[in-house]
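In response to reviewer comment 3 from the previous cycle, which asked for concrete evidence that the modeling workflow produces usable outputs, we include below a single protein chain processed end to end. The sequence was submitted unchanged, and the resulting structure tokens are shown without manual editing.
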Amino acid sequence: METLSFEFAAGQPARGKALVGVVGSGDLEVLLEPGQAGKLAIQVVTSVNGAEQRWKSLFERMFREQTPPALNIDIHDFGATPGVVRLRLEQGLEEVGHD
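The workflow returned the following structure tokens.
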């Protein structure tokens, strides 16, 4: 198990909370909660050691062309593919009221 932390610039805090996904074979769970204005903080607990650059690249691609809301995001990963990670994050952003 490995714990990774990332931080990105953000806008105002999100309007709500969300929990999407289920920790299990090939999937992950994402918890999103309003954060401090201007800051998107992401913590990933993953069963895949040595994947920090893959996670960082995925987040950078997602947030390059948009300003996300200020959130604290906790991800509990059990070997999800990048496509599943992006899907779960997009589902969570939709639920917290981010357009």
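The longest strand covers residues 2-9. We consider this sufficient to address the reviewer's concern, and the full set will be provided in the supplementary archive.
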